[in-house]
Amino acid sequence: MHRCRVNVILWFLENVKMENIAILGSTGSIGTQTLDVVSSLKDRFKVYGLTANRNVEKLREQIKKFNPEIVVIIEETGYKELKKDFPNLKILRGIEGLCELAGESRLDTVVNAIVGSSGIYPTLEAIKNGKKVAIANKEAIVAYGEILMEEISRNNATLLPIDSEVVAVHQCLHNRNVEDVKSIILTASGGPFINVHKEDFKSISVRDAVSHPTWKMGKKISVDSATLMNKGFEVIETHFFFRVGIDKIKVVIHPQSIIHSMVEFLDGSILAQMSVPDMRLPIQYGLTFPERFPSRVEFCNLVEVEKLEFKSVDSDRFPCLGLAYSAVEDGGTVPAVLNAADEVAVDQFLTGNLPFTEIPEVLVHILKNHRKVDRPTFDEIVQSEKWAKTATLNFIRQK
Length: 399
Fold this sequence. Notes:
With 399 residues, this protein is of the alpha/beta class. The chain starts with a helix and ends with a helix. 48% of the residues lie in helices and 15% in strands. It has helices at 2-15, 29-40, 56-66, 76-85, 94-102, 120-128, 138-155, 164-173, 206-209, 219-227, 229-242, 280-288, 302-305, 320-330, 334-350, 359-369, 378-398; strands at 19-24, 45-52, 70-73, 90-93, 109-112, 132-135, 158-161, 181-188, 249-253, 259-265, 270-274.
């Protein structure tokens, strides 16, 4: 018995490769939950790289706990602090540092948990260097979807979602023909204002908007969830990820957040992925696919759930979802402009310079004044984003 156990251990050590993983945006909500998942799978993953924008304190704690080979921080002040605290650690800064880490030869997997479309740069670097990329950075897909998918095909790369709804669709479609799909049904909790009357939206505060009833998320994505723009971005993400027409992607309100998405097939069958609302589950799926391992996520007790509700979206109260559909239909640089304008509008709301109700109004104005570029190059998308951010900020200041 003892000899058998030793043989099993030796086989495991010889055949199971420890993956070196880099977590871009490790101090944010997705990043910290990814580290929790990695901690539960210590025999599978070694934290090779960590990155942060400016949260030096949390990054310092993560360095001490996970002992990475490389650390990247965007802000210069934080860079100087970390260089002083960890003189023997390789510390990089800026977008250039992110790209250098993403292309590291000893790195196997890159988790992109960065907020904002600037996450496209390390994503493309990882893809070009043959890494597996698990991506929660939906803004990069929204803005650069066509270019990103072309690079994946060109490099025969692996891109896996770690967004709960897109992961659900991925599971339902695995080993199935997309041509057999009648519709993809994305579920939305409805956010904190699903039962709030439109006339009461004027009194919505920042605190109200970031208090999501189901998910623990960062401020930006929480506001996007409150306006349903986040769901709109997921519609665009689904369109690019699975190469399905926008007419096949539907959204329904599902307050319990137990069913994360569904796929309806031509024969009338509907497959759904269900679990308790916990981002660690889709994160682990993206890291370990196609294998399954025990997780720290609570199991779903359907008896305790009692009911599953579904409602249509009220487009009058939540016009941002419709803007996302229109952006995909218009194509070209329009999705990138929508994403960039939303980034500025949400930031202005969070800093008290824009009422919640005026977020969609600002987006409509920017989209109307944008000169679309069809089949844009990478640089043309970058320029469109810069224009959108400047135009949005100027418009808000003039209001």
